[in-house]
Design a protein that fits this description.
alpha+beta; Creatine Amidinohydrolase, Chain A, domain 1; Creatine Amidinohydrolase; six-stranded mixed β-sheet; four-stranded mixed β-sheet; 9 helices; binds zinc ion
Length: about 375
């Protein structure tokens, strides 16, 4: 491990204690594997992190002892046979009587077993305290996100010539997945969406056997993963010639997207950004057809805090990465969604995703 890596890890742990008073808790238990990865570097699929201001203990089963020791040299790696016993032993050893835990990442079943086992320990759920823990990206994370975007951009550019009448959604999605993997993506950010014609009116359509027809609108929502970091971008294009109404709706969504991005900066809330996009769409008469939030944070999870929605009190801060993705969906006909990822700055933002968002029609 380089000094740099040690430095970054310590800063991340300090972020936990900016949110949680170490005087209130003897220890904090983490169960969310992406939070554990963020705080320790460990990329395994199972484990528990017991965090104290002066000690970081990573509890893993036998499969992961060697990997955890290699990936997390600043942690005390402890092997357990049974997770609940492992947690109980570690808490007893550390004399931890007041313990916070990630409420959103623990099943009720496991919670009950832990509580049963350590009756003298006071377990306190943490939820809002840990929201936005990973939202501000350091320079290393930003460069991994940029690399994920590079892979996705190159893959879609390669696949665009396949968008011809007669091709099925599934063929196009498979080619895009294949290209992303061939270019270095570990997996897809989420199941790739290629939705044509009336399927494009479903915000979360699954690619199927529908063949592209002349003049079809097509929504492509896709992302690559590079060293755990996700990209997320949506392009809506037309295979042939868009009609006047489609052009009009596209312009409305594009304007909502542009206005929201122009407003992104430090200090603005997720609700305000959502409101800017939503107001424009409502003013044009399509309010009920914009049926989802305007965006979300993206990083080790493809959907993470902060949220950009009518319900979000979360406030944007420098170095957060969020999507902006307004849409309008006309059931039975078609839909439009335009999505970019942006890096929040003090006075504005930088758009990270790179596919052009002007209305693109593919000549037949
Ligand atoms: Zn998306
Ligand atoms: Zn998204």
């Amino acid at each position: 491990m380089t000094d740099d890596a040690a430095d970054i890890d310590r800063k991340r742990i300090e972020r936990v204690y900016e949110r949680i008073d170490p005087k209130e808790f003897d220890a904090i238990l983490f169960f969310d594997m992406n939070n554990i990865r963020y705080l320790t570097g460990f990329t395994g699929s199972d484990g528990v992190l017991l965090l104290q201001p002066d000690r970081v203990m990573l509890l893993v089963d036998g499969r992961y002892v060697t990997q955890a020791a290699e990936q997390s040299p600043h942690c005390d790696v402890v092997q357990y046979r049974d997770k609940v016993s492992g947690i109980a032993t570690a808490l007893a050893e550390r004399g931890a009587g007041r313990v916070g835990f990630e409420a959103f990442a623990l099943t009720v079943g496991l919670y009950e077993k832990i509580r049963e086992r350590i009756r003298t320990t006071r377990l306190a759920p943490l939820d809002g305290e840990l929201s936005c823990l990973r939202s501000r990206k350091d320079a290393g994370e930003a460069s991994l996100l940029r690399r994920a975007v590079d892979i996705a951009t190159e893959a879609l550019t390669d696949v665009l010539p396949l968008l011809r009448p007669g091709r099925t959604e599934r063929e196009i999605a498979l080619e895009l997945d294949y290209r992303m993997r061939a270019l270095g993506s570990e997996e897809n950010s989420f199941p790739t969406i290629v939705a044509s014609g009336p399927n494009a009116a479903l915000p979360h359509a699954r690619p199927g056997d529908r063949k592209l027809a002349p003049d079809d609108p097509v929504i492509i929502d896709f992302g690559a993963v590079y060293r755990g970091y996700h990209s997320d971008e949506t392009c809506t294009l037309v295979v042939g010639r868009p009609d006047a109404e489609f052009r009009q709706v596209y312009d409305i969504v594009k304007e909502a997207h542009d206005r929201a991005i122009a407003a992104v900066r430090t200090g603005v809330s997720g609700r305000e950004i959502d409101g800017i996009a939503r107001r424009h769409i409502e003013e044009q008469g399509y309010g009920p057809q914009f049926s989802h939030g305007t965006g979300h944070g993206v990083g080790l999870d493809v959907h993470e805090d902060p949220r950009l929605s009518p319900l979000s009190d979360q406030v944007l801060a420098a170095d957060m990465v969020v999507t902006v993705e307004p849409g309008i969906y006309l059931p039975g006909r078609w839909g439009v969604r335009i999505e970019d990822m942006v890096l929040v700055g003090e006075d504005g933002c930088e758009v990270l995703t790179r596919m052009p968002k002007e209305l693109k029609n593919i000549d037949l």
